[in-house]
What we know:
The chain is mainly alpha-helical.
Amino acid sequence: MVLMTTGIGGGAWRRFIIVTVLASMVLLVAGCSDRPDVTYKELMDDDPQVRADAVVRLGQARAGDAVDSLVTLLDDPDEIVRVSAIRALAQIGNPKVVPNLTKYGDDPLHSVRLQVCQALGTLGSPDGIDALEKMLYDPDDGIRLTAARNLGFIDHPRALEVLIKISLYDENEIIRQHVVKVIGNRKAVEAIPVIESALTTESDMVRSNAAHVLGLLGDVSSVPTLIEALEDPYYKVRSLSAHALLAIAPDNAEVADALAARLEVEEDGMVRTDLAWNLVLAGRAEYLEVIRGMLFQDGPEDVRAEAAHALGEVGENSDIKLLEKALNDKKGLVQKEAMKALEKLKEA
């Protein structure tokens, strides 16, 4: 009424109302910036690239109200759209889609099976364990490894049981290594017998990981097995067994005696360094001389670097001069470890 009295006629008034409403609609749309810039019509576009782009944006926006629409695209004729839909559902994070995803664990397309593995691990629902278990039998090594990795992300006892039952005996060594690491990360003490068996019967790298994991698990029942592993033919197993023994039983005289006995006959420079390092940790400071000697040996640079690292952990003030001298080593790895060790000793 006020506007009418200021001279705006009826037609002008109607135009004003229309413009005002349109402006309000623009502001309303602009104000909804938390919604994805995607129309659901784009999901039905004839161009698969348009559909795929729309799916990606919905996933990035964590658009929970798009879940049902994305599920329909799991059967899209285009591979990229299907893979993008699976990834988007994982990004949104609603576990209700797990049953929908598990149907595609045996899909003919490698890319789809791979993305399903990753999505089930990301969602972390125990409902995905059965599907991942089946995928541990996939003929493709990459699928089996991805399935094993993503089972490790599901915090449920049965996920670990499946890994131990199946993947620990996979023909692929990398998969077996991964299972051993998962057991260590989970602190799964119930798996100790299996890990001890792996330490005595598996490949070099799996045995090495097994020794490391037993140290992480920290059960004194593993001490006899680890002492035996000090005689292992592979140097990394011997080194990691020494570290594991001290982690489990730092005050055990039997452990220290076993380390000292092995050092008497050990020829590998890395293992000699690690044996001496752990003997010093066990209270036998006289073995510092072994580490000091390894700092300037003519062999591999990683042995000298390990010696520098060890001195940073168990060295004395008198070792500062030795480490300063090691800064002149021709190898950067040795220089780097010597510098770090110096910083530790000076701060102590």
